[in-house]
Amino acid sequence: GENVEQHPSTLSVQEGDSAVIKCTYSDSASNYFPWYKQELGKGPQLIIDIRSNVGEKKDQRIAVTLNKTAKHFSLHITETQPEDSAVYFCAAHLEGSARQLTFGSGTQLTVLP
Amino acid sequence: DTAVSQTPKYLVTQMGNDKSIKCEQNLGHDTMYWYKQDSKKFLKIMFSYNNKELIINETVPNRFSPKSPDKAHLNLHINSLELGDSAVYFCASSQDGKNEKLFFGSGTQLSVL
């Protein structure tokens, strides 16, 4: 089955700096890669996703890059703000399959004011 | 209006008791899920239902029994609670059974004493 590794487990940045979270996956067939943000006391929320037919996707201050050859993908947050502080999860999935979404272990991002 | 709502938010109970967690989604989605998040924040799927039909049943003890009276509701009943059941349980839904673009509830913190 799929295995997703996520690094780092904790990340502290100064407000205004950029943050990068990296994930690697094991199953080369996986072709859908979402990122979820979980704020304290809340459930995870989808913030961006990418499919394997593109290498990069942006949404305002958030971007995700995908390297299919190396089987890794990354979340980039620019101009970080205190409200970006949360736990971020990457995940991998084979689109159209009944297999479950496989999540990474999460990254606690803290943006220091 | 809350898209995916689950109750109760907190559940404290003694070992050996039976308890239920309720979940409802008003998004018109076909698929609902139960996830377990352990103390290290790791997210693991437990069950998936598509139009009231069980799709995914991961290696979960028989003490856990999901029930879906209609496609807008997926409840989780737990018998003979054990200490190791303490975790946060999340209900989620998605448009179809593709395990993509999940909408999560705010979680139920279960503490077994």
Summarize the helices and strands and which ones pair or pack:
The complex is a heterodimer of chains A (113) and B (113).
Chain A: E1 4-7, E2 10-14, E3 19-25, E4 32-38, E5 45-51, E6 56-59, E7 62-67, E8 72-77, E9 86-92, E10 102-103, E11 107-112
Parallel strand pairs in A: 2-11
Antiparallel strand pairs in A: 1-3, 3-8, 4-5, 4-9, 6-7, 7-8, 9-10, 9-11
Chain B: E1 4-7, E2 10-13, E3 19-25, E4 31-37, E5 43-50, E6 53-57, E7 64-70, E8 73-78, E9 87-94, E10 103-104, E11 108-112
Parallel strand pairs in B: 2-11
Antiparallel strand pairs in B: 1-3, 3-8, 4-5, 4-9, 5-6, 7-8, 9-10, 9-11
Name the poorly predicted regions of chain B. none
Characterize the biggest β-sheet of chain B: 7 strands, mixed
The biggest sheet of chain A, with number of strands, parallel, antiparallel or mixed sense and barrel status, is: 6 strands, mixed
How helix-rich are the residues of chain B, as a percent range? under 10%
Number of strands of chain B: 11
Helix and strand string of chain A, N-terminal first? EEEEEEEEEEE
Q: What gyration radius of chain A follows from the Cα positions, in whole Å?
A: 14 Å
Kindly state the mean pLDDT of chain A as a whole number? Answer: 94
Helix/sheet category of chain B: mainly beta
**Termini Cα gap of chain B:** 34 Å
- Give the overall silhouette of chain A: globular
Mean pLDDT of chain B: 92
- Overall spatial form of chain B: globular
Verbal overview:
- The complex is a heterodimer of chains A (113) and B (113).
- Chain A is mainly β and 113 residues long.
- Chain A is built from no helices and eleven strands.
- In chain A, the strands form two sheets. In chain A, strands 2, 4, 5, 9, 10 and 11 form a six-stranded mixed beta sheet that branches.
- In chain A, β7 (62-67) and β8 (72-77) form a beta hairpin.
- Chain B is mostly beta strands and 113 residues long.
- In chain B, the strands form two sheets. In chain B, strands 2, 4, 5, 6, 9, 10 and 11 form a seven-stranded mixed beta sheet that branches.
- In chain B, β7 (64-70) and β8 form a beta hairpin.
- Chain B is globular, with a radius of gyration of 13 Å.
- The interface between A and B is medium-sized, with 25 and 24 residues.
